[in-house]
Amino acid sequence: MKLIDQTWELFKKEVVLEWRSKYAFNGVLLYVVSTVFVCYISFNLTPGFDKSTGYKVVWNVLFWIIILFASVNAIAKSFMQESKSRLLYYYAIASPHAIILSKTIYNILLMSLLSILALLVYLVFFTNTIGDPLFYFLVVILGSLSFSTVFTMISAIASKAGNNGTLMAILSFPVIIPVILILIRLSKNAMDGIERSLSYGDIGVLCAINAIVLATALLLFPYLWRD
Amino acid sequence: MKFIYQTWWKVIVVLLILSTFITGLILPVPRLPVLHETIRNLYFHVPMWMGMLSVFSISVFFSVKYLNTGKEEYDLASVECVNTGLVFYTLGLITGMMWAKYTWGEFWSGDPKQNSAAIAFLLYCAYIVLRNSIDEEQKRAKISAIYNIFAFPIMVVLIFVLPRMTDSLHPGSGGNPAFGKYDLDNGMKLAFYPAMLGWSFMAIWIATLRYRIRLIENKRNSIN
């Protein structure tokens, strides 16, 4: 299969490029750690907050907001770092589907790694209140997958339209709000240790949104990238 | 697409809408708890969404056509359809809020249906912002066509699928019955279906007018 070969080669190239500089990874990791630390210090200003009733809700929502902004920062770079001549080179050697697929897969990998590390750092600083850790972990992986599929397409659009951060935020937030609402509901269920079978419907909706986004991205990217 | 420029269907649209003002306000309606006479808003609230949905669908159709052919007229048609759709969107939100005030108690009660309608509104506002951020015409047309096609399925999921999955006070969601199934009696159908049809075609009519104005402007601004 030509498409799979091309995707695999481009994916390897992404990983090698990132491995050489480690710029995106280290940068976003530092961003996450410092955000968590700032939150930790700010919450410590109110003594006894971790015993209060709202603590679990804040814990969960705060984690997702940190991951959301980290992923906007991480994935916005994926098309911006490409120079015009390099894009022209890809245009000559690979199919557009291979490019968007390899970027998406690479971003999924990057985001999964980052969010697992972020979860670990978060657990170190904030008292662990998760009732069903394995399921919470699964939700975090699902979340990074959804963020990657949505943001990769949006960053492709934003990079064509002048490449500014404001546009990326404006374009992506309406799309990401339903995703993050479902994720927060799912992870709250995991936190309270609610029966897993009750969450299957939400997981289904999340997968359906991902499928729609990925399908439209594959359909539309061939029109988007050449100019 | 010849019929879009003909008069007969516009006359029918005006008659349909005028008829719903009479039948919708005069014909008897079933007396239901909570709803009472506000049920007549059904003839005005739901058709707004129908109108919005029809122009947004047409706009996606023209976006696809633009991507395939690259003709500027298709881009103009699709953006004017979105502009008209946004007007109907706002009207739908306002009529919905007014209805919510009398039945749910507040203009905005944070109901899932209201919230996701607001999010989808942002989605289309982002389309307008995206268009304004690019100066080069062909690039603007291409990128906004792509975003329009991308936004449409997400809008459908947001407004028509997600609220149905959760507990919402809105009919058709969270186990609440929708009107069609259970209490839309024959008298109401007489006013409801013409209203749906009439307002959808009204939206299309406004969009074509705006498109034709845009074409003339475009012709005057072009250098030959």
Summarize the structure.
The complex is a heterodimer of chains A (227) and B (224). Chain A is an all-alpha fold and 227 residues long.
Approximately what portion of the residues of chain B adopt beta-strand conformation?
Answer: under 5%
Number of domains of chain A: 1
What's the rounded overall pLDDT mean of chain A? 86
CA distance, first residue to last residue of chain A: 27 Å
Specify the structural class of chain A.
mainly alpha
In percent terms, what proportion of residues of chain A is strand?
under 5%
Query: What's the shape of chain B?
Result: globular
- Residue windows where pLDDT falls under 50 for at least 5 positions of chain A: none
Radius of gyration of chain B: 19 Å
Shape label of chain A: globular
Q: Total number of helical segments of chain B? A: 7
Query: Could you spell the SSE succession of chain A in H and E letters?
Result: HHHHHHHH
Helix proportion of chain B: over 70%
Radius of gyration of chain A: 19 Å
In DSSP terms (H or I, runs of 4 or more residues), the helix count of chain A works out at 8
- Biggest beta sheet attributes of chain A: none
Extended strand count of chain A: 0
Q: Helicity level of chain A, as a percent range?
A: over 70%
Top keywords for this entry?
heterodimer, A: mainly alpha, 8 helices, 0% strand, globular, B: 224 residues
